[in-house]
Amino acid sequence: MSKSNSRFIVPAKSSDAGKAEHKNISIIIPAAGMGSRMKRYGPKCLFPTSKGSTILSKIIKNIRKVYPYCEIIATVGFDADKVIDSVPKNIRIVENQLYDTTNMVESIRLALNNAVNDDVIIVNGDLIFNVFTLQNLTKHGSCVVVDSQNRFNKDEVGVTVIDNMAVNFAYGLPIKWAQIIYLTGKELVKFHEFCNDREKNKMHTFEILNMVIESGGVFLADEPKGMQIKEIDSLKDLPRWDK
């Protein structure tokens, strides 16, 4: 780890996890990748967006609006020093030094091993979204955010939903996984256990989610009302609603 920043806590009134002092939550932002189509911008999470912001700064800003009591951990890798210099001092940093030979599971593993809370939200570091996307995620047990309105490209990972529960993740499915997870209880335990298996550090996150489900884990499929979200891979992906 090249640098570790202290955490900062602000007051809040809601009792939802991350919004009240007695219900803290850790939010992990895997942001170690370079983005093969955006190399000239440096780290993918520092891709410039509207009003002089970056993807990462927008993620952090909206997280703090919804979960002001949360611990935020950003996992960095490619051009780590640039990312570290760009984030506020109240963000914890974990460095994935194997970012170029592993997958996102390794970045998540490192962050989970440094998280201090028993409730965890994982937000991919290449997303732009509004505050409605994160609201109320922690009220009904472990869940994944899904998209049935074509907000994500058709080639992204999808999810089979039965009776409002996510039962399988795979490519080629019409309902997409929106790359946000809330983990608590047995699902967090199992997810952490699978991530800690070093032989799985080249796996994709959705493959770990399938393993958790196969071992008895249960995930609500949540499509928050008012959600706006977009995965950013190039300039053309910048959403008009965020300008």
Number of helices: 5
Q: Strand-residue fraction?
A: 15-25%
The 3D shape can be described as globular
Major sheet description? 9 strands, mixed
Oligomer: single chain
CATH H-level superfamily title = Spore Coat Polysaccharide Biosynthesis Protein SpsA, Chain A
Q: Write down the Rg.
A: 17 Å
Task: Tell me the CATH architecture.
Answer: Alpha-Beta Complex
**Helix-strand pattern, N to C?**
EHEHEHEEEEEEHHEE
Q: Structural class of the secondary elements? A: alpha/beta
Task: Count the E strands.
Answer: 11
State the strand order across the main sheet.
3-2-1-4-9-6-10-8-7
Mean pLDDT: 87
Give a verbal description of the structure.
The protein has 243 residues and is α/β, with parallel strands linked by helices. The protein is built from five helices and eleven strands; from the N terminus they run E-H-E-H-E-H-E-E-E-E-E-E-H-H-E-E. The protein has a single domain, classed as Alpha-Beta Complex (Spore Coat Polysaccharide Biosynthesis Protein SpsA, Chain A). 20% of the residues lie in helices and 23% in strands. It has a nine-stranded mixed sheet, sandwiched between helices. The chain has a two-stranded antiparallel sheet with strand order 5-11. Helix 1 links the parallel strand 1 and strand 2. The protein is globular.
